[in-house]
């Protein structure tokens, strides 16, 4: 899986446009009326699922075939309908991991803190200690796990993105989440789309991807698949200057 798609899944973003999934109604991929991908589908994929350039009617993440898309009801508007859709195996329960994955894709919450703290909180709602939680335990107004998470784990504003034109190295470090000192092509594309707020313009997303792909080999001279800080930031002939020149910014 491309590194950019991995980052998108990790941070609950659409793997096509890299926008936050919670901002719009999501969905699930169906085959014969049943969910075929054990994850929620991002808005851009839901809208364009039938005509994705990444392989037609195949999930661009796992490549499973599908023949339909089911919209996920709003968690506040129709909580019981929402639970029925996100409970992909239909057993009426969700595990810790499922709770984190579906809620971070549906709500503006601090999911990194939730992932760290939920194991210690889980027993408050998982009364029979089977590591799963029922619909009632999750959705009970005021006292359910969902109400607690919405109240105690609001998302805080992220730090501002450094200007790629005036602070190339700062921009690179900002997007180098794992501090590896390198960024792969798809990570650069994701970072540019989010920097220039292109998530709603799919034609510009494709143009951005094509532009970066066209020049990538010039800078990834060793064929490692990654660009380091020096290759990206070098004044005059680094990847950052090539990108900004191509974008006329």
Could you explain how this protein is built, in words?
The protein has helices spanning 3-10, 43-48, 79-86, 96-104, 111-121, 135-139, 145-152, 168-175, 185-195, 202-219, 229-233, 239-246; strands at residues 27-31, 34-35, 68-71, 93-95, 132-134, 182-184, 226-228. Strands 2-1-3 form a 3-stranded antiparallel β-sheet, with no helix packed on it. With 249 residues, it is mainly alpha-helical.
Helices and strands, in order, run as: HEEHEHEHHEHHHEHHEHH
Overall average residue pLDDT: 82
List the uncertain runs: 49-55
Q: Tell me, briefly, the overall form.
A: elongated
Helix content: 40-55%
Distance between the termini: 31 Å
Main-sheet strand order equals 2-1-3
Contiguous helical run count: 12
Q: Strand content of the residues, in percent?
A: 5-15%
Q: What is the alpha-carbon Rg in Å? A: 20 Å
SS class: mainly alpha
- Largest beta-sheet details: 3 strands, antiparallel
Got a strand count?
7
Secondary structure layout plus pairing:
Layout: H1 3-10, E1 27-31, E2 34-35, H2 43-48, E3 68-71, H3 79-86, E4 93-95, H4 96-104, H5 111-121, E5 132-134, H6 135-139, H7 145-152, H8 168-175, E6 182-184, H9 185-195, H10 202-219, E7 226-228, H11 229-233, H12 239-246
Antiparallel strand pairs: 1-2, 1-3, 4-5, 6-7
Helix pairs in contact: 1-9, 4-5, 9-10, 10-12
Throw out a few tags for this protein:
single chain; 249 residues; mainly alpha; two-stranded antiparallel ribbon
Care to give the gist of this entry?
This protein is mainly α. The protein has 12 helices and 7 strands.
């Amino acid at each position: 899986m491309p590194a950019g798609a991995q980052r998108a899944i990790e941070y609950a973003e659409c793997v096509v446009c890299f926008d936050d999934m919670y901002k719009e109604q999501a969905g699930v991929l169906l085959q014969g009326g049943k969910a075929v991908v054990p994850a929620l589908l991002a808005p851009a994929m839901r809208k364009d699922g039938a005509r994705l350039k990444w392989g037609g009617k195949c999930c661009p993440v796992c490549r499973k075939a599908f023949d339909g898309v089911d919209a996920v009801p709003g968690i506040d508007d129709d909580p019981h309908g929402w639970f029925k859709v996100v409970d992909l195996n239909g057993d009426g329960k969700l595990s810790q991991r499922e709770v984190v994955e579906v809620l971070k894709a549906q709500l503006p919450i601090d999911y990194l803190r939730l992932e760290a703290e939920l194991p210690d909180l889980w027993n408050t709602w998982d009364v029979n200690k089977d590591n799963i939680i029922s619909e009632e335990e999750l959705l009970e107004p005021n006292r359910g796990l969902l109400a607690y998470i919405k109240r105690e784990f609001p998302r805080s504003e992220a730090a501002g993105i450094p200007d790629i034109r005036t602070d190339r190295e700062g921009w690179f470090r900002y997007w180098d989440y794992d501090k590896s000192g390198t960024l792969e092509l798809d990570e650069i594309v994701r970072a540019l789309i989010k920097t220039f707020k292109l998530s709603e313009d799919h034609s510009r997303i494709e143009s951005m991807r094509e532009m970066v792909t066209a020049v990538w080999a010039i800078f990834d001279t060793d064929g490692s698949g990654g660009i380091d800080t020096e290759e990206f930031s070098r004044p005059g002939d680094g990847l950052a200057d090539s990108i900004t020149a191509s974008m006329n910014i």
